[in-house]
Design a protein that fits this description.
The chain is an alpha/beta fold and about 325 residues long. The chain contains eleven helices and ten strands. Bound molecules: ligand PBG. The site of ligand PBG has 10 residues, from helix 6.
Length: about 325
């Protein structure tokens, strides 16, 4: 054939392929989510094989292992005991709560590891919602924000580097920015869950924290989070959310879930100059693990390809439960 263009010329050898490679992943791109609980043992999580609820003592070893693999940030989620859960989730700003204690320990023992937090009421409220539910069954916006600000300030006080509001209340980024600044934490960053969709992919995470929306307090409780998390049908709305978060002072914008929302990552990358993070969520992790356990896919290859796809779509950072495995695979080739 008389072809002028033969794209295969640049795919012919490994060296040529490496020369024209457009994207790569490295452990410093990863943010490693970890679950903590009050117990003294490591508890496996049924729907997330390989992920665990860590005791505070054993958490340190896992964070050190991540650091040694080149991971530079962890995000912590608490499994709060039922007796501490209330209608207003006020345990979220207890200075001696599980998360503040975990952050303090971590900052003492692995001081350089950046610590990101999650700001929302769901692990602390008896109904599993991210905000306060009114007697009529409405998730209240402005009333919730004052609690979230207190939660964020406590996290900053114990040494958090990045505050991660995951609640999707309107105006929370600006309010948290102001609360942090008022308390002298102008150096603490905000990684906002900017485009967080009302997604079925969070199922295993809610099992890990026992935080799924559920009846409580004898009032009507919304069965899902669709009055505050975004409709999976919407893309333009993600741009509005990004513009608002940017105006309100977010330092990093996040898209969540990741894989089913690569188009949203791409759009935000076009729209904003801020770093973009993708959350490779629990349901995405569980699907890979389940298929790998059955021998239907090659876990290593699928994970590395998936993580690369987030970078290609425009993400700078990836929150992933695969972080340590992926870092090890990248190191060992
Ligand atoms: C809490 C929160 C959720 C996740 C992160 N923070 C669950 C939810 O909104 O119900 C999900 C993470 C995952 O599925 O991996 N607001």
């Amino acid at each position: 054939m008389d072809l002028t263009y033969r794209p295969r010329r640049l795919r012919r050898t490994t060296s040529l392929r490496e020369m024209v490679c457009e994207n790569s992943i490295s452990p410093a791109d990863f943010i490693y989510p970890l679950f903590v609980h009050e117990g003294s043992e490591v508890q496996p999580i049924g729907a997330m094989p390989g992920a665990n609820r860590w005791s505070l003592d054993l958490l340190i070893g896992e964070v050190q292992r991540a650091w040694d693999l080149g991971i530079r940030c962890v995000v912590l989620f608490p499994k709060v005991s039922d007796k501490l859960k209330t209608e207003d989730g006020s345990e979220c700003f207890n200075e001696n709560g599980l998360i503040p204690r975990a952050i303090k320990r971590l900052k003492e023992e692995v001081p350089e590891m950046a610590v990101m937090t999650d700001v929302a009421l769901d692990p602390y409220s008896c109904d599993g919602h991210d905000g306060i539910v009114s007697p009529e069954g409405v998730v209240l916006n402005d009333e919730t924000i004052s609690l979230l600000c207190r939660q964020a300030v406590v996290q900053a006080q114990v040494g958090a580097d990045l505050i991660g509001p995951s609640d999707m209340m309107d105006g929370r980024v600006g309010a948290i920015r102001e609360a942090l600044d008022d308390e002298g934490f102008e150096h603490v960053g905000i990684i906002s869950y900017t485009a967080k969709y009302s997604s079925a992919y969070y199922g295993p995470f809610r099992e890990a924290l026992d935080s799924a929306p559920r009846p409580a307090g004898g009032k009507p409780i919304p069965k899902d989070k669709s009055t505050y998390q975004m409709d999976p049908a919407n893309a333009r709305e993600a741009i509005t959310e990004a513009q608002l978060d940017e105006q309100e002072g977010a330092d990093i914008l996040m898209v969540k879930p990741g894989l089913a929302y690569l188009d949203i990552i791409y759009r935000l990358r076009e729209e904003s100059q801020l770093p973009i993070a993708a959350y490779n969520v629990s349901g995405e992790f569980a699907m890979v693990k389940a298929a790998a356990e059955k021998g239907w896919i090659n876990e290593r290859d699928v994970v590395l390809e998936t993580l690369l796809s987030f970078k290609r779509a425009g993400a700078d950072l990836i929150l992933t439960y695969h972080a340590c495995d992926a870092a090890r695979w990248l190191r060992d080739g």
